[in-house]
Amino acid sequence: MNQPIYKIGAIVRPKSPELKDSCVEIFRILADSGIEVWCERESSCMLGLQGGVGFEEILDSADAILSIGGDGTLISAVRKSIGSNLPIFGINMGSLGFLTAIKPNEVASFASLLVSGGYKLDFHRMLEARFVDSSEKFYALNEVFITKNNHCGMIKVGAKINNEFFNTYIVDGLIIATPTGSSAYNISAGGSVVYPFCSNILLTPVCAHSLTQRPLVISDDLELEFVLKEDGMILIDGQQTITFHKNKTLNVRKSCNIPLIQHPNRSYFAVLKEKFNWGGGS
Questions:
Q1: pLDDT tens, 249-273?
Q2: 3-state SS of the chain?
Q3: Class assignment of domain 126-254?
Q4: Residue 282: its pLDDT value, please?
Q5: Where in the chain are all domains bearing CATH 3.40.50.10330?
Q6: What's the whole-model pTM score?
Q7: Is 91 assigned to a binding site?
Q8: Which residues are recorded as binding NAD(+) (predicted)?
Q9: Is 188 labelled as part of a ligand binding site?
Q10: Is residue 3 part of an annotated ligand binding site?
Q11: Homologous superfamily (CATH) for 5-118+262-274
């Protein structure tokens, strides 16, 4: 059994005031189950609710973080909570929902698992990206994406593995993905789907100039370095943009594991079958 959860900090998809009624009902169900819910201040203001607490207070005092929205909302909450080791779970108000596996009509039954400790914890490996001349670190749950500033035209990306040069990618972009992110942007670019709890890093070129530039799956014990010959940028999980100046070196390596709360009966392969309609619905 896991630790019972009695205090939850909630963060809601931005610019979604239409979720107010759903959120109020979710908070009521959780409260009726003996769970205290603190709505993050910006989310509370957006919904027009009274009160609201700062995210730092949630990190200090909550037992878990609740994301209400889609996978993007949960990923944002994950990156904001780096270092806290708080478990996170999501209620899916969108359509796809690989990570936010709980549906609104399942909140009542899931609340009983939270207070009893009967939920499952899945640990997802993140990536850490850092320019070698800087101490600032960027964390990705899905992917680090290297591309041109204007997203138009090709870019040359020099790549090293464990300080050994191995390739110059001539591409529209290069995806450096986690196994968790293999079913996100990576799969749209022709990369492999990788079981999210494998110890790997994925390198997937986007619209490569050469047919020999193929997706690559490596051990996450290896460290990667990338250099550009012209200015570009990196996108972290499609949410955070950072300028990548030419001749700077970007280091990418494995980082911490993030605990995500899931239903104990959840099957990753059943989720794949449902989301990708594998097997033709049979």
A1: 999 999 999 999 999 999 999 988 9
A2: CCCCCCEEEEEECCCCHHHHHHHHHHHHHHHHCCCEEEEEHHHHHHHCCCCCECHHHHHHHCCEEEEEECHHHHHHHHHHCCCCCCCEEEEECCCCCCCCCECHHHHHHHHHHHHHCCCEEEEEEEEEEEECCCCCCEEECCEEEEEECCCCCCEEEEEEECCEEEEEEEECEEEEECCHHHHCHHHHCCCCCCCCCCCEEEEEEECCCCCCCCCEEEECCCCEEEEECCCEEEEECCCEEEEECCCCEEEEEEEEEEEEEECCCCCHHHHHHHHHCHHHHC
A3: mainly beta
A4: 52
A5: 5-118+262-274
A6: 0.95
A7: no
A8: 71-72, 142-143, 172, 183-188, 239
A9: yes
A10: no
A11: Probable inorganic polyphosphate/atp-NAD kinase; domain 1 (3.40.50.10330)
pLDDT in tens, 142-195: 999 999 998 778 999 999 999 999 999 999 999 999 999 999 999 999 999 999
For residue 281, the model assigns a pLDDT of 52
Percent of the chain past pLDDT 90, that is, above it, reads: 89
Outline which parts of the chain fall under CATH 2.60.200.30.
126-254
pLDDT of residue 228: 98
119 labeled binding residue? no
